[in-house]
Design goal:
- The protein has helices at about 30-40, 65-70, 90-95; strands spanning about 5-10, 20-25, 50-55, 60, 75, 80, 100-105.
- With about 110 residues, the protein is an alpha+beta fold.
- It has a five-stranded mixed β-sheet. A two-stranded antiparallel sheet has the order 1-2.
- Strand 3 (about 50-55) and strand 4 form a beta hairpin.
- The protein starts with a strand and ends in a 6-residue tail after the last strand.
Length: about 110
């Protein structure tokens, strides 16, 4: 079975924090996000507490509902907004060999 071994490292944190994860081929960006939450304990019962986004090629892939709704049919920072549930990581990893993934801690109002 094909799988990807990914090293997660977190910028602007001292000392350096990193994790190594294995995801199967065919995993979606949503699964990547859920895995990151699990291995880093970035979890909450508030929703959305953590949102994420990444710019890859002509796409901005995010689970941020505000961005998805506001930019439906429009570009966000010059990129087409895509939801992460159906987009698989395979082609992007094989083309780029890395991701720059950002997360935002939402305030208690969810904004």
């Amino acid at each position: 079975m094909k799988a990807y071994i990914l090293k997660l490292s977190f910028e602007d944190i001292t000392p350096l924090i990193w994790r190594r994860i294995v995801l199967p081929a065919g995993a979606t960006f949503n699964r990547l996000h859920e895995t990151i939450q699990n291995v880093t304990n970035f979890q909450s019962t508030l929703s959305p507490y953590h949102s994420f986004g990444m710019e890859i090629d002509d796409y901005f892939i995010t689970d941020n509902e505000s961005i998805i709704e506001e930019y439906k049919g429009k570009s966000y920072a010059g990129k087409t907004v895509k939801q992460p549930e159906r987009i698989k990581i395979d082609a992007y990893l094989e083309k780029h060999n890395y991701f720059r993934f950002w997360r935002r801690l939402e305030d208690s109002g969810g904004t």
